[in-house]
Amino acid sequence: MHDDFFSTVGEIVKYGGATFAALVAMSIYTMTDGFFVGNWVGTDALEAMALIFPVTMIFSAIGVLFETGGSAVVSEKIGAGKKNLSEKIMRTNYLCALIIGAVVAIVGNIFIESLFKFLPNTTAEVHIVELAISFLRITLCGVPFLLVINLTGAFMRCVEQPGHVFFLVGSSALSNIILDALFIIVFGWGLRGAALATMLAQIFGAAIAFWYFKFSRQKFSSPLSFSSLGHIFQEFKIGAGFAVATVMMSFIEYFINATILQYDAADLLATVTISNIILSFVFLPLNGLDTGIQPLVSRLYAAHQEQHCLRVMRYGFFLTCVLTLAIYVVLMIFTEELIKIFIAGDETITPDMIVFLRAMFLLQPFVGLYTWLSGIMAALEDEWRNLVISLVPLFVQVPLIWFLPKILPIEYLALNYSINDVAEALLAFILIRSLLKEKNLSFKKIFHSR
Q1: Is residue 1 over pLDDT 50?
Q2: Measured CA distances, 332 to 243, 323, 326, 417 (Å)
Q3: What whole-number distance in Å separates Cα of residue 357 and Cα of residue 202?
């Protein structure tokens, strides 16, 4: 039994650990712009980044769609011994991602100003919007490269090279840090410099991905094609729930920004940016652990290695709980210190900022439970439950964003996140029981099997 424990944990560390480290690097990638902008550009730029965040979430939704669905389908084909087919699916994914990314970049730049026209029209808001548009025009050009990075990270895990994910994402993150320092501090290019640094770092990451599948041992034996387009539609069904959840998050962020401006609290937008960065820093490592384990669960289930599969699920749950609680303690105890990272020394940290952040993460442990449950759903190729859960914010967060400012000070608006965390976790728990039953599994099997 001890041998099973250590061997299974070793596998989880191999798959989930590397992806966890990679997404920690991605979190640093996300945090870098906020750190340099907040300390060397100013509060106005931080406020602009709050308006930018909902749009960048749309980019992430497309990446999640390919990454989650592609990882599940390719891992299942590899587990079933169909390696040639899995390679064809990977090639088709790259071609579709490049085309979709290019369309998003072009259409986004054409209609970019329309994205902000529904915000309350104030003098302060006009200046912030102008900064946001200048940032987005540049970062939109990096969307095709971002999708390539996401896909490559997913496929590296599928072909049992999870350690390479850290190199891919870590290299991109490091280049972003160096370029941010150069463009913002040395050249003084402000928010545009941050945007340019992000785009160039994404191009650099895509170049690494090209090298990996062109010249390494994992190189493709034939060119890109649409030969496996039918599997792409299957991937979209699997990844739709995660993608819709990300789009929903984008809509929620837009609604929050509009509400804050409506209540004439534009200064709070800087806190929204900080909270979004911290949220990414919290969620990405959690997601990294369970996303890293996902291909392993898919492959073991497809290979009919049930007991092994159950052990991976069980130990993945315990690791997720430990990580979630550790993050929660840090968030609650060191809230002010976390804010200071993104605020210049001469700026004042107000009690409202601290209240907003603590209210946002008040029930954060439920995020860990939901992440683990949704990861199992994706690994077992569920096509609709994650999609149903992704609609929860529409019925929970939207009414709360409208209602909370009417009865509480505006800084308590962030409570909508915490309440939604509980709702998503509970619904995921209810829905996954039927999925496990369909697969002849159960929570009892997961937690009591040898």
Answers
A1: no
A2: 29, 15, 10, 15
A3: 29
Residue-number span of the structural domain to which 241 is assigned:
2-448
Q: Which has more pLDDT, 152 or 406?
A: 406
When mean pLDDT is compared over 22-36, 169-183, 229-243, 253-267, the highest value belongs to 169-183
Beta carbons of 72 and 235 less than 8 angstroms apart: yes
**169 within 8 A of 24, measured Cβ to Cβ:** no
* Contacts with 158 (C-beta within 8 Å, 6 or more apart), sequence order: 71, 74, 75, 78, 86, 90, 295
Tally of helices (H runs) and strands (E runs) in the chain:
18, 0
Q: Which residue has the higher pLDDT, 55 or 162?
A: 55
**Band of the pLDDT at 38, cuts 50, 70, 90?**
confident
Number of domains observed in the structure of the chain: 1
Torsion angles phi and psi, residue 121, rounded to 5: -95, 100
**Residue whose token pair is 């079933």:** 80
User: What distance in Å separates the CA atoms of residue 270 and residue 343, rounded to the nearest whole number?
Assistant: 9
Average the pLDDT over 312-339 and give the result.
88
The verdict on pTM exceeding 0.90 is no
Burial 382-403 (b: 16+ CB within 10 A, else e): bbebbbebbebbeebbbebbee
